[in-house]
Amino acid sequence: MQTIGADAKAAGAMSLRSMLFVPGDSERKLGKAAAGAADALILDLEDSVAKDRLPMARGIVSEYLTSTRGGARIQQLWVRINPLSTAEALPDLASIVGGAPDGIVLPKTNSGADATLLDHYLTALETREGVALGSIRILAVATETPAAIFTLGSFAGSTPRLYGMTWGAEDLPAAIGASTNLDDSGKLDPTYQLARSLCLLAASAAGVEPIDTVYTDFRDSAGLFRSAQAARRAGFTGKIAIHPEQVEVINQAFTPSAEEVAYARRVVEVFAEGVGTSSLDGKMLDMPHLKQARRVLATVARK
Ligand code: COA
Ligand code: MG
Fold this sequence. Notes:
about 300 residues; two-stranded antiparallel ribbon
């Protein structure tokens, strides 16, 4: 199963740069988000929706999915359901799978076993609803509980539906009982930097996409751009947005520059001769450089 993700990556399967959260109970925000440039929307049934509005939110999300099912969706449509440990998770799934969402964002996972369990639920519901078997992917929010940090390796091989893994710096401190996720200097405390690094490594080990977490200060576009660029340099392939104005900034940060693309083309050309190692502009090149160059070109081939 690990190789499915790895092959898809090597083949340059489209990865999502920006995934915009939209509270599932707001038709107004849904309309606004649908008109924007996000690669994917995450229609939320979890924390951005008050419990007494959840049935209404399920209705709105389900109707929107159904109205676009089968047509050419210009954006992928994902749904964040409630955690599997709650009574809301199954009713969430039962009300939205018929709309054939592109994927499910699964919050507060404890290990890869949660992704496997969701895989089974989806298989049952896809069968009932006549949705293509295995078509609904999974993005695991993998670092929201302290226990999850110790089982991140278990996502590898958990299910071929696993699209990616993301981390969070908001729910983990709450679960720990920390009063802030920042250190004295205003930087992310080492605990949450660790969560970020482990999520990146675990996603990479599982052959799936590492997706960077939200940048909560949504008025600070410059800070968001720096954060998104740092994430791309580190190996993340996309980032989650919470406000429409963040979308273009993220898309831009995750799009390689013309110089990067030109350089990647030159690297690939060097290896076209069939050599295993070579040099370019006085620097040694070997297989990791070729892999990286192919990845850059795959990102641009998507458009
Ligand atoms: N998706 C779609 N539209 C959004 C949006 C979103 N995530 N966030 C804001 N908008 C819309 C607003 O409705 C507003 O449109 P309008 O003027 O036509 O009403 C416009 O964009 C400007 O919004 P703004 O006034 O700058 O922000 P706000 O104070 O209305 O909302 C938040 C701020 C944080 C509440 C809002 O951005 C939001 O709901 N974000 C998503 C939260 C979420 O899903 N969290 C869960 C994951 S952490
Ligand atoms: Mg949360």
